[in-house]
């Protein structure tokens, strides 16, 4: 019995690159289903393919095997329904903050007045209302990233992908922005998928933490975080989940070679299927 | 409502350099010219060089006043400036279009760039003999030579500017589903403006120097002609005045462009 299609379904995705005539497997049989409004964090060491997975989801990369579907439609290239925030804010230095954010609406079918209203609203949302007319070089790293987030959000995407958005920030600014991102998520109810190498960040923000391991990049484990929000980093339960994720990350658990998961609609499987370890 | 409160210090930058510093800079810049003038003066006073070869500064100054009073100097400057303006506009305009075309299309680059680079290797003055036979020694010759002088740096810099647009910006354009035209208008062109400006500055400098070159060889008016004529008549004061005018005008044009550039690229300035 088919119910309505999953919000975001990543199914047996394998992505290989050739580097110096060698084939590198960035992702191998990665499968993940994301529910609407869910906050997924993906954590892993560098080279585990987490950014590749994110870019595939956002439609910025292609050439993979397997399938990614968003609301039932196969992801083919970028879409305004899927926003992205990069590690570097990537603001255009020749445009003011407000014009940079408005770029997110460049191809949206909204009136000029509505556009202005949306830009103002999102400037307010990320706390940059006083900096609408400032050029990016006047912003600190944290402020620039807020503008980057506003640009990703302004078009009201269905899913927002965030690629290590706080990776370049100092610890204090980072903690601030994590709290802010959480409030924005709670308020706007947009599905968010955030890639990070910071376990603390992953546990603080995620409904589920996807732990990935490298060479080849694959999902090692998915850890459910059943903690009320906003989360208290110093609580013992938080510490427990963090320890669980760290344990998984450090590879103390035995991991099988990745295998494809069964496809519901297909009766013939490419290989014997094993479920990927999912912990509740 | 704001989900967050401003907690990061606003980035503050130092204000513009105080005028006193700028005055000091200007004085320092004048030091070397003043020393040269002094040397010239001393050399003339002491008769280190024959007066026919190195006229006395006071004598040059008197000639300058005469040439200004008679309108001769400004007439020649006007002729030269007009030629440069026309040639530069044509050359820079074509250079901009060609640079953009080569930058955007690898096919255009493949077809045009090798020939263009070979063409650029031939010094501007090297074209004059052939061009003289083709178009004579009239205005057309001068305009073509100046156009070529401006065209080459403009094309190459615009090309480099477009090729140097960060792939990160282009990826943002892709993520926001920009059309080709939107990408060009909102990302590629603004990102290459600094390079285009370098092209304009080099282009104008080249146009100006090519002008003097072509006027030296084939002209009956203009600053370059003034140089040749002064030499033939052994009026070294006229030669010196023409040289000073050429240098000064070039200097002013470059300075003016520099200011325009900073005005247009306000987003780069630290003290808005």
From TrEMBL, chain B:
Membrane topology value: Multi-pass membrane protein
UniProt domain ABC transmembrane type-1: residue ranges: 77-254
Keywords assigned: Cell membrane, Membrane, Transmembrane, Transmembrane helix, Transport
Membrane-crossing residue ranges in chain numbering: 23-43, 84-104, 116-137, 143-162, 183-204, 233-253
Subcellular location: Cell membrane
PROSITE patterns linked: ABC_TM1 (PS50928)
CDD domains per UniProt: TM_PBP2
Predominant subcellular localization, coarse grouping: membrane
Family: Belongs to the binding-protein-dependent transport system permease family.
The protein's name in its UniProt record: ABC transporter permease
Organism classification: Bacteria, Pseudomonadati, Pseudomonadota, Alphaproteobacteria, Hyphomicrobiales
